Structures are given as structure tokens and as C-alpha cells.
Amino acid sequence: MTQAAIVAQGLTYQYGDLVAVDHIDFSVAEGEILGFLGPNGAGKSTVVKLLSGQIKPKAGTAMVLGIDVARHPKRVQAQAGICFEITNLYEEMSAADNLKLFARLYNVKHLQIEGLLERVGIGGHGRDLVSTFSKGMKQRLMVARALLNRPKILFLDEPTDGLDPVSSEAIRNIILEERERGATIFLTTHDMLEADKLSDRVAFIDRGKIAAIDTPHTLKQKYGKRSLKAQVVGPQGRLEEREIALDGSNTAGLVNDLFAKEQVVTLHSEEATLEDIFILITGRGLA
User: Fold this and answer.
1) 26, 115 in Cβ contact below 8 A?
2) Is 133 helix (H, G, I), strand (E, B) or coil?
3) pLDDT, tens digit, 9 for 90 and up, residues 141-181
4) Going by C-beta distance under 8 Å and a sequence separation of 6 or more, which residues neighbour residue 138?
5) pTM score, whole prediction
């Protein structure tokens, strides 16, 4: 049976009177990617800080790799990699020196700097000052830093937010490679397409509470609707849209009628997105 890498029970945190994380319960299996999905301000980053030992909960517990992270944060951090939403690199140092510094903190003895930089797509830039890097290059260096100690668990807080498509795809590929290696990945994002692509399961967090947690497929089956969408030639040759529910009792008859009575130009199936389902469950969008 797969062990749990993360177990949160009644986890709670407040900033003054604001309850940012409100008595949440969830677990993440070893080797699983959990997408923590919610709008800005929903509590995602606070959960990362709680699980990685940067702040202590006001109530509840978080066990990470079998360790009570509030009591032994250093033991968890030694086995974890963390990539923050906001870069916190030393800008007047080179990329290589940034990695060397954190390697010393993690007590990493055999550091293959160029290989690590190549892996995240910034090979050949090890001697360059970080201040000269683009946002995408800085984020790739942040990911490289998170991988220094071959972590058992990765906390990735909005790792592709605001990046160009090439940088985003490179980071997604690394996430999947790390999962294949056996790492557990806790991924916060408000990008429902990214969560759908990468996650074994997703949790919807809204106003500090978990509204739903399951596989993307199960959530779509439970809350979404499937349909066929067609473009047909209407009056004066203009294209018009037709939609047929796939789960209706007379779907086959409606499809036959469509082809019998209309000039169909295109036809495709469509299912609910995670954002559609988030809106249905919480009443608001992810933006």
C-alpha cells in the first residue's frame, strides 16, 4: 500500500483576524502530484509555508514524510525542494554561485552545476549574473535550486506563473520527470489547464477551505457535462453553432437529425474544464 507523504489534519492559520487556512484535512501519497487549485488569495501559498515549515499552524497538524513539520522543520526541509512564486535569488551573484551557496546549506557534496543548468534549459549561463536573467530564466534557476538535494518532496508555488510558453513547458516536463523519479509534488496553481495536465489529483481551495479533492477525471464526470458541438451552414451561408448533450436519453436521435437536416461543417466533443467545475462548486472563478 502506498504511504502518505503529506497528511494534514485540521490545519489552520490566521493573519490577524483573517483566517487564511481554515481547518483543512487532506493527504498526498508518495510519488503523487497534487494540484492545489484556487484563485489568488485562496490560501495556497500559506499552505505551502505551513507544509514546508516556514510558519507554524495556529491549530491542527501537518505530517510531512512522517515528520511533524511544526516541531522538526529542519528535518523536513533537508529532504524537500521548494520553488517560491516570487524569486528570492541573489541577483548580484552568478547562477553557479547561487547553486553552490544552497548546496552548502543542504550539505550537497557532489554538485553537477552545468548538468543541472542544462536540465532546466539555461546551460551555458552558469557564470552570468542573475540580475541579467529574464523572468523565465530566473524561474528555471529557482527550479534548479529546488532540485539540488534530489528531494523526496517538491513544493512548487505557481512555478509557471507569467512565463512564456517555452519556459512553462520546460518546467512542466521537469515536474513529470521528478514524479517518475519517485518524488512527491505539491503544486499550487490558479492555471486549471496546467493542473489538468500534470496532476494525479486536484484539490480546490477557496477562502481557506478545501471545496473538493479528487482526480480531474472524476470531478469532470461528477460535476461536468459532456456535449457535441457542431458548426453548420445557416441562412445566407453564415456559420452557426449547434450543441447536443452527450448524456441525454435521445442523443443518438438528435445526432441523426443534425446530419439529416443540417449541412455540418465541423463536429467535436467537449467536456467541462476544471475551471467550469470550480465555478460550479464555489460560485466564483480562478482569476
Assistant:
1) no
2) coil
3) 999 999 998 999 999 988 888 788 888 888 899 999 999 99
4) 87, 89, 130
5) 0.84
